[in-house]
Design goal:
By secondary structure, this protein is an alpha+beta fold. It is built from 6 helices and 13 strands. Strands 1, 2, 3, 4, 5, 6, 7 and 8 form an 8-stranded mixed β-sheet that branches. Strands 12-11-10-9-13 form a 5-stranded antiparallel β-sheet.
């Protein structure tokens, strides 16, 4: 079934995180639309879904485009909780990884901190954005883009592909959207628990492997990837001892 406002509304009826749905056949950026909504008095519960996105926003200012009928691009405005802020990326990536496994059977893995990979190819990126007023978190949103159908994207910074190319068949974007948001709603209410972190570690890419974490050209850590801290930081067993990385670019050594 093609994406439409009616189909999305029916599929997501009863989801506690979704109160209002805005579907656009084409948009520059679902994150930008949601951000404007929040900055003009909007609140949590808005889901923005686009069939085609011409100027999507990625991590570190990278752009991301989605051709019509192929990818899944959406943004959800969330309750602004400072205690959950550091784990939002992981919650989104975990929900996507688990949903891909359920819908396609592909072995999706969570690449810390905010990507999902299948067979060493990136298929999803997650981008949270937030704003503060003094010491108060005023709003929070989570943008997600999944390469579902069509040919693999070219000229990408990291190896990238689509679920169709990796799985040998096309998949329903609506089914995937429904599953992602169902799982995200569940994780959102258990985000500060050991169970949530265990779920993340169960599909954590390169766990037990020798990795490095970079910030630009600076090496933050090198060693064996052990897991995650309670705040979602990466735990590395390095030659100098345990290192916890709250940010950085993860790669194999």
């Amino acid at each position: 079934m093609e994406l439409s406002a009616t189909a999305i509304d029916f599929a997501l009826r009863g989801n506690p995180l979704v109160q209002t749905i805005h579907f656009a056949s084409e948009i520059d950026s679902t994150n930008r639309y949601a951000k404007n909504y929040l900055e003009t008095g909007g609140s949590a519960g808005l889901l923005v879904v686009a069939d085609r996105q011409s100027a999507g926003q990625g991590r570190a200012g990278r752009s991301w485009q989605t051709p019509a009928g192929s990818a899944l691009a959406f943004t959800l405005t969330l309750p602004p909780s400072a205690s959950q802020l550091g784990l939002v990326s992981l919650a989104g990536a975990l929900a996507v990884g688990q949903a891909i496994r359920r819908v396609s059977g592909l072995p999706a893995m969570l690449k810390w901190p905010n990507d999902v990979w299948v067979h060493q190819h990136k298929v999803c990126g997650v981008l949270p954005q937030a704003a503060w007023e003094g010491q108060q978190l005023s709003w929070l949103l989570l943008g997600i883009g999944v390469n579902v159908n069509g040919m693999p994207p070219s000229h990408t910074r990291t190896p990238a592909s689509t679920l169709e190319a990796l799985g040998g068949q096309a998949f329903s974007r609506l089914d995937l959207l429904q599953e992602i948001l169902l799982l995200l709603a569940s994780h959102w209410h258990h985000i500060n628990t050991a169970e949530f972190l265990q779920n993340c570690e169960n599909i954590l890419l390169w766990q037990g492997k020798l990795v490095q974490v970079l910030a630009g050209e600076q090496v933050l850590a090198r060693g064996r990837l052990v897991g995650l801290t309670a705040s979602g930081d990466l735990r590395i067993d390095s030659a100098q001892g345990w290192v916890e990385c709250p940010f950085g670019e993860l790669s194999l050594r």
